[in-house]
Amino acid sequence: MTITRNVTVGVLALQGAFIEHIKHFEGATKSGYSDYEFSFIEIRTEEQLEKCHGLVIPGGESTAISLIAQRTNLLGPLMRYVKSEKPIWGTCAGLIFLSTQVENGKPGQQLLGGMNIQVKRNAFGRQLQSFQSDLDFSSFIPLVYDFPTIFIRAPVITSVLSDINGPEDVNDFIIHTKNDYENKAPVQILHQLDNGLIVAVRQGSKLGTSFHPELSDDYRFHKWFIDEFIVKAL
Ligand SMILES: NC(=O)CC[C@H](N)C(=O)O
Question: Which atom of ligand 1 is nearest to the CA of 64?
Fold first, then answer.
């Protein structure tokens, strides 16, 4: 007799593209996982968050997600969750929220500080606010040579921070996390565009992508997150 294990993955549902992530995870796990019974749930409260083996922070607007998290008292629980070393994947605005520092943040914007990186919001400028590109991710996802990758007013990773305490001369735009967590794992660059811009990084159990795999019709990225981050951490 095989024993099935219940696994819960949460998607932060304060604002943005959370339903799309849930649909992709459901599609990605429909078959091939006889040992696991997956539930993908929307997260709006601390009680819901506590049930999760891993968390996804979707794209949307990082300033709005931060504001709603503060107003609904979820910011503290999210900062504690980041420290638990459970898998977390931030896409686009979620990547910004998960970072340690934003070079063009909005005053009052809060960051979870899960990855020792600095990001820049809306990094592709006005002409190129949104675009789609087939990218070769086969160096980290086996056999994925042509993933349909959608960028919408996307951020990029501008540096890896060695000093997580932040800059001494913080100006009006550099926003630094208030979380005292330091992720000790090395930051790995997973993908750089041809022009050198960094759009996917991993730091131990944390993953950050500038783009939106949940807006394509391809489940392979979500399946990789389940296999590589969630299942391996169980
Ligand atoms: N598609 C997105 O998530 C856009 C991110 C948005 N520009 C921000 O700063 O939060």
Answer: 10
| Pocket flag, ligand 1, residue 153 (CB < 6 Å) | yes
41-76: b (≥16 Cβ within 10 Å) or e: eebbeeebbeebbbbbbbbbbbbebbbbbeeeebbe
Nearest residue (by CA) to ligand 1, atom 1, is: 152
- Number of structural domains found in the chain: 1
What Å distances lie between residue 124 and 3, 120, 152, 197, CA to CA? 48, 10, 9, 10
Amino acid at residue number 192: Q
Q: Is the CB of 59 under 6 A from ligand 1?
A: yes
Shortest-distance Cα residue to atom 6 of ligand 1:
61
> What does pTM read for this prediction?
0.96
Give the domain extent around 32: 5-233
Query: How far, in Å, is the centroid of ligand 1 from the Cα of 222?
Result: 20
CA 93 to ligand 1 centroid distance, Å: 4
- The pLDDT tens digits for 9-44 are 999 999 999 999 999 999 999 999 999 999 999 999
Question: Active site includes 214?
Answer: yes
Helical pair 62-71 and 75-83, crossing angle rounded to 10 deg: 110
pLDDT exceeds cutoff 70 at 168: no
Secondary structure of 6-32 as H, E, C letters: EEEEEEECCCCCHHHHHHHHHHHCCCC
- Residue 76's domain is classified under what CATH number? 3.40.50.880
* Interval between CA 4 and ligand 1 midpoint (Å): 38
